[in-house]
Amino acid sequence: MKSSKLKNRFKVVSDAWHLAKPYWTGSEKGKAISLLIAIIVFSLLEVYMSVRLNKWNVGFYNAIQNFDKPGFLKALYLFSILIFSYISVIVIGFYFSSILDVRWRKWLTNFYINDWFGSKTYYRSRFTDTYLDNPDQRISEDIREFVQLSHSLFFGIFKSVITLASFAIILWGLSGNFKFILFNHKFNIPGYMVWLAVLYAFIGTYIMFKIGRPLIKLNYQQQMYEADFRYNLVRVREYAEHVASYNGDEIEKKIIKKDFDNIVSNFIQTLKRNIKISLFEIFYAQISNIVPFLIAGGRYFSKEIAFGSLMQIGSAFGSVQSSISYFIFSYKMFAALRAVMDRLLGFKQTIEDVGLLPDVPIISHDKNYIEVKNLQIKLPDGQSLIDNFSLTLHEGERLLIQGSSGAGKTILLKALNGLWPYVSGEIHKNLSSSSLFISQKPYLPRTNLKEAICYPKFVNLPSDNEVVQILNQCGLGNLTEKLYEIKNWDNYLSLGEQQKIAFCRVIINKPDVLYLDEITSALDEKAESYLYGEIIKLLPNSLIISIGHRSTLVALHTKVINVTDHALFKNMN
Fold first, then answer.
1. Alpha carbons 266 and 264: distance in angstroms, whole number
2. Radius of gyration over every alpha carbon of the chain, rounded to an integer in angstroms
3. Longest dimension (CA), the chain
């Protein structure tokens, strides 16, 4: 059991290093180490100034005891120099610490963003067994907290160790020997004040660990509940029209109120635990103020030491025991860091699990066609959806995929585009050719209308006049004056208008391969025929693969496949 607890403590350190290592061994390690050295130097100077101030106590309080006015004024003059130097050291050290924090956070955020977007992890994570709640919070909040907390705790521990070493020597010299007789045996304990500080801090640390341990889980849950609450509020905003049309107000309120009840309930438990921790911290700190005077007071009243030495003992004892007791006063930070680390480790685990997903069997070639051989598509649970599917499509061809609901039309489209991992067989395609996948409800980023239309193209955008011409061409002349307005366009535009925007996007991006998933479902047949005709005319060499149920779509394509029976029942070549 003891071995298991020891392993868990070391695991905390190894987990922290696992999360921090990419930065400290990455491209910015030179600057990071330089800043680290600077912070260490100023931390050492800070401890040195604390030692000097401790020694200053002797002359100052002895001058008071002896009614030595010149000595008193001299001590005040020395104090002004020391305190100015001390403050300067703290401010400069804080500056370097802040620079390290922002550099570390920036680097680590970019690192995780690259991982999250690399290999489409943000999309493929849905296929893993690892449940990842609120990945946006992991990147935006947890990285910030991890950097700040780990930085603060590391240097807090470092300064505590240096302070302990410095003041333990002072306290050892001031303590003298503690002599007593027990059972007719004489005992002599040198540096007994140091041992007393160690014992006092050890007992306090043990009690704090017992009181504060549940705080780790409570902090983790609080962040999760807060994120769930925000997420569901955002979902109502995004799907406001759907909620309103279903009259789903009551059930949505119920869900959101339940989320908030979880926040409040967990907060109350966290509050109670924090009150216990704070009460113990206050009790521990106040008692520690009088303990050294209770122990060393006898030597002062017996005139063995002067008043200044007594005050120096009190100051040195406080520094030693507070250094050893760093864990007590920082337990809330430790608990918060452990919770943040657990969330970030879960985030990294998801990224690693995505890397273990099967690769889509795409074989690259340099020609503009797609060839599928013996394709088998499965669901995540292993159930077979499509078996032994083969097909060859050349540039300029237009394939219409039809079939009954649940037959696998959309999944087949995703497999051909490399978005579905549970695939075996062969898919031959030119990976250097451009492609565009548009779903039934096209994605419209929250940006100005021109950029939303051109998405995902973001450089060398067409001129305003060209965009206006394309809007008119696709029946969206009413939007030509709104090119630079920023709105939630998916809420502002009807589904039919959004689908027309998608056709504008196709014309602007000019993809070599175009995947269309029921992109005309909200349009009438006349508009459908016209818009398909426009992209056929403007992109004569593009390969177009569509999903649609209407029979009118058949005439607009050169091949039609029914995935229910894999029948190629029309070939107009």
1. 6
2. 35
3. 113
Strands 185-190, 362-364: parallel, antiparallel or unpaired by DSSP? Answer: unpaired
Tens digit of pLDDT for each residue in 141-181?
888 889 988 888 888 888 888 887 777 777 777 776 666 66
Per-residue buried b or exposed e for 509-534, using 16+ beta carbons within 10 Å of the residue's own CB: bebbbbbbbbbbbbbeeebbbebbeb
Nearest to 386 by CA among 549, 564, 561, 560: 564
Domain boundaries along the sequence of the chain: 10-356, 362-571
Distances (CA, A) of 450 to 437, 459, 463, 495, 501: 19, 12, 10, 18, 10
Q: Nearest-CA neighbor of 346 among 218, 195, 224?
A: 224
Could you tell me if 391 and 371 are in contact, meaning their C-beta atoms sit under 8 angstroms apart?
Answer: yes
**Helix extents (H) in 118-142:** 121-124, 135-137
Positions in the chain short of pLDDT 50: 1-7, 567-573
Q: 377 has which bridge partners?
A: 386, 423
**Residue 497's pLDDT is what?**
93
> What does pTM read for this prediction?
0.71
The helix-helix angle for 331-356 and 2-24 (nearest 10°) equals: 70
Q: Is 362-571 a domain of CATH 3.40.50.300?
A: yes
Q: Which CATH superfamily hosts domain 10-356?
A: ABC transporter type 1, transmembrane domain (1.20.1560.10)
